[in-house]
Design a protein that fits this description.
10 strands, alpha/beta, 271 residues, 10-stranded mixed β-sheet
Amino acid sequence: MNSILVPTDFSSYAEKAFELAVAIATKTKAAITLLHITTLDVETEDSNNMERQKTAAEQKLDAIKQKVNDNIIINTQIANGSVVPSILEAITTFAADLVIMGTKGATGLKKAVVGSNTANLIGKAEVPVLSIPAGYTNTDIKEIVLAINQTEDLENLAPLFKLADALQAHVRLVIFTGEKHDAATYITDRRAIVGLQKKLEDLYGQTGLEVEHLSGANFQQTLQSYITENNIDLLAMITHKRGALEGLFNRSITKEMAYHATVPMLCLHHQ
């Protein structure tokens, strides 16, 4: 990992994202780019006011930068425009390997606004997006769970295992297949798990990877219970274009989980 992009609106949510980015950069030696996005209308906004806002943003970015150890490279950038397109452009400009964003969980109509930028980015970015939920304070990631289904394409998990190696974190795999109880289905699931273990060994050298089978009536509740009971520090999921695969986790499911996860969630783009 060489480059981490952290969009910031100077909120407490963005601050938490930056803190985790610093923790990761310390161990991976990656550079961090702090990106602040304004949405000023250049045609109607007073030029003096625009300059004042730009200067204020530059001062805030510099203040954040000054808090960090000199051993970490911190770049700063100010962009003007819509949030998600500006982030996508910055990913290309700074060759970002990872985007880390703070988010705020919400329900009902609030979803349309609160946390929507992070959710929309998950659906469009072609690099991993790590969303940090409100209230999360831990920066020492030691336990990672990757939630998949049996039909996942596993050939895009390199960023996860590279991050885990850098953080010296333990990765476990959970497969959610819904509420099934008959013996024939259980045998089929166990065979699939063995096959997944073998494939992950072949692709990434992950020998002895812990794989568990989860079932239940509600995916979110079942997975959240597992996270709580096993002291998981980070959840990883693969996001697909809706309809691209008949797998469990299309983009809408992954984005929905990003609203409700109580730990950071790493969304891996399906190639």
